[in-house]
Design a protein that fits this description.
The chain has 883 residues and is of the alpha/beta class. The chain has five domains: 129 residues, no CATH class; 111 residues, no CATH class; 121 residues, no CATH class; 233 residues, Tandem AAA-ATPase domain (Rossmann fold, 3-Layer(aba) Sandwich); 239 residues, P-loop containing nucleotide triphosphate hydrolases (Rossmann fold, 3-Layer(aba) Sandwich), CATH 3.40.50. Helices cover 45% and strands 14% of the residues. It has 38 helices and 26 strands. The strands form six sheets. A seven-stranded parallel beta sheet has the order 16-17-15-18-19-14-20, sandwiched between helices. It has a six-stranded parallel beta sheet with strand order 21-26-25-22-24-23, sandwiched between helices. Helix 18 runs antiparallel to helix 27 and helix 29 runs antiparallel to helix 30. The radius of gyration is 34 Å and the shape is flat. InterPro entries: DUF3670 (IPR022138), Helicase_ATP-bd (IPR014001), Helicase_C-like (IPR001650), P-loop_NTPase (IPR027417), SNF2-like_sf (IPR038718), SNF2/RAD54-like_C (IPR049730), SNF2_N (IPR000330), SNF2_RAD54_helicase_repair (IPR050496). Pfam families: DUF3670, Helicase_C, SNF2-rel_dom. This is DEAD/DEAH box helicase.
Length: 883
């Protein structure tokens, strides 16, 4: 089978689950059902999703497909339970109840796009799926029952008869029973419910119609002596007062009635098990003697009826009674001896555990995932609830509501004004440090995770000293150096990185430095990192440790630290195993052992409420803000522009130095027009070297390791890919468009578009239409001049200037291909600048000139550089920094 395409689910305008398939789950399967459904989805997505609900659950369903399937099956079930659906047909109304809506939100799996699934999204999808049914049934010539039978023979439309059980104030007969049926009066647009006795008048003389109406009752009577007696005596046709024992019989037989096609209306306390007997374990009433997940928690079990506490003696007294319904403090309670004995046994087991076992804070939190396993209780259907005591409840509330956390002033030595949400992140990091918890700062790309972290580290340096180790991709070293020097110039730092790995043993950790910066690759090789007890261990782009089995991940997790922090814009995506690995680093043991977590995730296929438990557990340790959040958008400019600093590879450095020598010799003997030509051609060659050695040398390999820009491009585009966003990449060199596109196709696992001066006008229009269309096209590579005008590419919300024109007007014109009328998202502009080279120096000059006189360079291009004298030019061209 052709590999299924990514991003097939785009629903409700901007709100979508952008990855419906987890490709590695269904890749290489030749199942015709998958092919058939995929083709149906391409033709009509809502129709395909609706008809998905008629299928049995399939092994190829990914978590997001399973979630959509769950919504479709719920709608179909509710449709099949509409007793008047034959009357209403295309005018039928099926609403989602508040409880059902809340449950669907809690069951959202951890998949790409989950942040878009809110009340509006679910209700919009529900309405669209319902419209599919209305459209199809309007032109269907048969009955609704036949329509359902043709799609799934196991789905039966309910009959028109309803059974009702309500409480009654009569002491001897505390319940009332009534049977009704749905009918459509003449001149009425809607069906109504009326007592079943009225059917005797309506169908007087037409026994065939009467028997058809009560056929479901006859079917139920075959299995229920209670209904059989009522039918034979004729009492079924009149409202009845019944005893508690009769009501209990009715309640236990509801499944029989519903299988026969009878809808039952019963009190909420039975339907929702409000008054069932359960065990509750309260944890963390008192503040522990130490902080962190190893802190020992107090815990106390109690017995509950609903939310009312009872004593073990009272529960034992219930066991002496006969089975049935009894009233306890005005509430009806089911006396089921097997269940009550199991509850009492579990309560006593927890009491014994209290004296035999110490419960850590980590254990207490893990209880919310699998309390039965942790408390060694075998009865899976036994209800055991975990409640937080006053101390733990306060801590969790503060962490879940970071706006309420104690405020901490930034240091005078920190030179930046944090945005409101960034201040919140800074306060949250300090709070997590005080509590001894690992923390994941998971803001969207572009929201300023780095500046928040620098503010936090500067505060810790001033007040608590210690030492910090920052591990990051090599492509981000330049960015961090720039940010530290700009925002915390007093912070002493050391770069633990050498391109010559053979001499890595010479890299000594300097104790006079507070912050030490190294790369993931070096962390594997530098054994000295494991020999030091770090105060803080920070991982930038922490998705680098998502695979727990790699040498790199194991090396990182072996580094000891008092507090561990992860920075990532994509903390949770399709694979829950990635989430386990992240938390195994941050707060080891919180999600259990790999085996325990695997067992838990397997259970999610049967019980999707586990997603809510997992979300509740990890929420205190993750601070995630999205660019789509209205409170964040209000605090952001519409267009976020940032320099992405890259470094030169060894090969680039050698070529750069070689070119410097050649230019130095030629400048001394060249004048006039020839000199101007030499300067401009030299600038072009430096740009080519900074892009990739193979562009300068005219080769075709374009290996990633030979170019700092290619490494930076991967770092940015991997996050864009994981979020299923779209990006435009501009380059002034037509010959670079194909190598960049080929490189990006490896990252995005599919090809995007290339557009340059040689692209025919008709083809350009087709490319633009497809790029802005519903099907996911991840990227477009454009030559700057060809892509600078006449295009509307608002599907993208990222722009990367791979190399610089050094003409702000031209660059802004290109950026505005996305940032224009019709754009609904914040646009992020990444401008690549190679550190220590002419690119960094000219960027600084342009920034300063723009501050002085606005767009002064808009018409001159790079011509102004030819006015520099030889000495100034060589200073501009020279390699700077540590290169």
């Amino acid at each position: 089978m052709t590999r299924l395409k990514a991003s097939k689910i785009h629903l409700l305008n901007a709100y979508f689950l952008s990855e419906a398939f987890v490709m590695d789950e269904i890749e290489n399967q030749s199942d015709e059902n998958i092919k058939k459904w995929t083709e149906a989805f391409d033709a009509d997505k809502y129709g395909a999703l609706f008809h998905l609900g008629f299928l049995e659950k399939e092994s190829w369903f990914s978590p997001s497909i399973e979630y959509l399937y769950h919504i479709a099956t719920l709608l179909i079930k509710k449709l099949s339970q509409q007793s008047a659906i034959e009357f209403n047909r295309e005018t039928v109304q099926v609403e989602l109840g508040a409880d059902e809506l809340q449950k669907l939100k809690e069951e959202i799996p951890f998949v790409i796009g989950m942040e878009y699934v809110d009340d509006q999204w679910i209700q919009g999808l529900w309405a669209s799926l319902l419209d599919v049914f209305k459209t199809e049934i309007k032109v269907y010539e048969g009955t609704v029952a036949r329509y359902f039978a043709e799609h799934n023979a196991h789905i039966n439309i309910v009959g028109r008869v309803f059974f009702h059980l309500v409480e009654n104030k009569d002491g001897e007969y505390p319940f009332a029973f009534m049977a009704t049926y749905s009918t459509k009066p003449v001149k009425s647009k809607r069906a109504v419910h009326t007592p079943l006795k009225n059917a005797l008048k309506e169908f007087d003389g037409d026994e065939k119609k009467l028997f058809s109406l009560i056929s479901t009752v006859i079917k139920a009577a075959e299995k229920s002596a209670f209904i059989s007696d009522l039918l034979e005596s004729g009492e079924l046709f009149s409202p009845l007062k019944i005893t508690g024992d009769e009501a209990y019989t009715f309640l236990k037989e509801i499944e029989i009635y519903e299988e026969a096609g009878i809808m039952c209306r019963v009190p909420d306390w039975w339907k929702k098990k409000y008054n069932s007997v359960s065990v509750s374990v309260a944890v963390g009433a008192k503040e522990p003697s130490k902080v962190g997940l190893d802190a020992i928690m107090d815990f106390e079990p109690s017995l509950l009826i609903g939310d009312e506490q009872i004593t073990p003696q009272e529960l034992s007294a219930f066991l002496e009674m006969g089975e049935g319904l009894v009233q306890y403090k005005g509430k009806w309670v089911e006396i089921n001896k097997n269940k009550l004995e199991a509850v009492l046994d579990a309560f006593n087991k927890v009491k014994r555990l209290k004296t035999d076992k110490l419960l850590s804070l980590s254990d207490a939190m893990r209880m919310e995932l699998n309390v039965h396993e942790l408390l060694e209780i075998q009865e899976d259907d036994l209800e055991i609830t975990i409640s937080n005591g006053q101390w733990l409840r306060t801590v969790k509330e503060n962490l879940k509501n970071p706006d309420k956390i104690e405020k901490v002033d930034t240091e005078p030595s920190f030179h930046a004004n944090l945005r409101a949400y960034q201040e919140t992140g800074y306060h949250w990091l300090n709070q997590m440090s005080r509590l001894g918890f690992g923390a994941c700062l998971a803001d969207d790309m572009g929201l300023g995770k780095t500046v928040q972290m620098i503010a936090f580290l500067e505060h810790q340096r001033v007040h608590n000293a210690g030492s910090a180790l920052l591990v990051l991709p090599a492509s981000l070293i330049g960015n961090w150096k720039k940010e530290i020097e700009k925002f915390a110039p007093d912070m002493p730092y050391q770069i633990l990185h050498k391109s010559d790995l053979k001499n890595s043993e010479n890299l000594q950790i300097r104790e006079d430095k507070f912050l030490h910066i190294t790369t993931y690759g070096m962390a594997v090789r530098l054994e000295a990192l494991k020999d030091k007890q770090w105060t803080y261990l920070i991982l930038d782009e922490a998705q680098a440790i998502k695979n727990p089995g790699t040498k790199q991940t194991k090396a990182i997790k072996a580094i000891p630290a008092k507090m561990k922090i992860a920075m990532t814009g994509t903390p949770i995506e399709n694979k829950l195993g990635d989430l386990w690995s992240l938390f195994d680093f941050l707060n080891q043991g919180l999600l259990g052992t790999p085996k325990e977590f695997t067992n838990f995730t397997k259970g999610l296929a049967e019980d999707m409420t586990g997603y809510a438990k997992l979300r509740k557990m990890i929420q205190p340790f993750i601070l995630r803000r999205l660019k789509t959040d209205k409170s964040i958008i209000a605090d952001l400019p519409d267009k976020l522009e940032m320099n992405a600093y890259t470094t030169l590879s060894k090969k680039q450095i050698a070529l750069y130095k070689q070119l410097l020598e050649q230019i130095s010799k030629k400048l001394d003997v060249t004048e006039g027009i020839e000199r101007k030509g030499l300067v401009l051609s030299s600038i072009m060659k430096f740009k080519q070297i900074c892009n990739h050695p193979d562009q300068y040398l005219g080769l075709e390999a374009y290996k990633e390791a030979h170019s700092g820009k290619f490494e930076q491009l991967r770092a940015i585009c991997e996050t864009i890919h994981e979020k299923r966003e779209r990006v435009l990449i501009f380059t002034q060199f037509r010959e670079m468009t194909a190598p960049i596109s080929e490189f990006l196709s490896e990252i995005f696992l599919k090809e995007g578009f290339v557009l340059h001066g040689g692209t025919p006008v008709k083809k350009r229009n087709e490319i633009v239409e497809q790029f802005n269309g519903e099907h996911y096209v991840p990227y477009m590579v454009l030559s700057l001049k060809a892509g600078g005008v006449g295009l509307n590419l608002t599907a993208a919300n990222h722009v990367i200037h791979f190399d610089r024109w050094w003409n702000p007007a031209v660059e802004n014109q290109a950026t505005d291909r996305t940032f224009r009328i019709g754009q609904t998202k914040n646009v992020m502009v990444h401008k690549f600048v190679t550190k220590g080279t002419i690119e960094e120096k000219i960027d600084a000059i342009i920034e300063e000139k723009q501050k002085l006189s606005g767009d002064i360079l808009s018409s001159t291009g790079e011509q102004w550089l030819t006015e520099y004298n030889n000495e100034e030019l060589m200073q501009l061209f020279a390699l700077g920094g540590d290169l």
